[in-house]
Amino acid sequence: MVTLIGKGVVRGRGCGPALVTQMPINFAAAFAGITSIIPGKRAVMQDRHHEFFKKNLRDTVLVFPTCTGSTFSGMVLMQVMYDHEAPAAIIVQDADSLLISGVILADVWFNSGIPVVEYNLADLFDKIHTGNRVEVCGDTGEITIYSTADSGAH
């Protein structure tokens, strides 16, 4: 078990298997497509240029460097959260306004927010790997990482 301390950006707690990428995510492109209107498929990545193409992001702890794309990205993420199809938590190196706006609005308007922690140190991608069980606390910025072997025990 490893614990990191980042900066809590959006309150709450979430846990799940990590889904890690070093590619920025464009949420507008990620959830644009006909598949995004099908219940149960709304959280499936539709961006053909991303390594997560066709992966379901629901209930994962999404770990990535930054958000990219249009100012509409936050609203797209808010809709995914409203539909209860969102990741369990987000860990990001640069928590910019494109990303955070939708998460905060979903929390305030629909009580369906998810925790966001900004961890901007270079060792993020050395510490967390896809498949690790990760617990995130947006209130304190605490990130707890369990090895894949420990995942079933927690």
Mind explaining what this structure looks like?
- The structure is a single chain.
- The chain has 154 residues and is an alpha/beta fold.
- The protein has one domain (2-153): Glucose Oxidase, domain 1.
- It has helices at residues 27-30, 73-82, 97-110, 124-127, and strands spanning 2-5, 7-10, 13-20, 61-66, 89-94, 116-118, 133-137, 142-146.
- Helix 2 (73-82) runs parallel beside helix 3 (97-110).
- The chain is globular and about 35 Å long.
- The mean pLDDT is 85.
List the helices and strands and how they pair.
Elements lengths: L1 E4 L1 E4 L2 E8 L6 H4 L30 E6 L6 H10 L6 E6 L2 H14 L5 E3 L5 H4 L5 E5 L4 E5 L8
Parallel strand pairs: 3-4, 4-5, 5-6
Antiparallel strand pairs: 1-8, 2-6, 3-7, 7-8
Helix pairs in contact: 2-3
Tag the structure with descriptive keywords.
eight-stranded mixed beta sheet, 154 residues, 4 helices, single chain, alpha/beta, 8 strands, globular
CATH class: Alpha Beta
CA-CA gap between termini: 11 Å
The best one-word shape is globular
**What is the total domain count?**
1
* CATH architecture descriptor name: 3-Layer(bba) Sandwich
CATH fold-level name: Glucose Oxidase, domain 1
Oligomer: single chain
Number of helices, counting only DSSP H or I runs of 4 residues or more:
4
Helical fraction: 10-25%
Structural class: alpha/beta
- The total strand number stands at 8
Which segments are poorly predicted (pLDDT under 50) over 5 or more consecutive residues?
A: none
Write down the Rg.
Answer: 14 Å
CATH homologous superfamily grouping: Phosphohistidine domain
**Chain-averaged pLDDT:** 85
Which percent range describes the beta-strand content?
25-35%
Strand order of the largest sheet: 1-8-7-3-4-5-6-2
Let me know the largest β-sheet.
Answer: 8 strands, mixed
N-to-C SSE string, H for helix and E for strand: EEEHEHEHEHEE
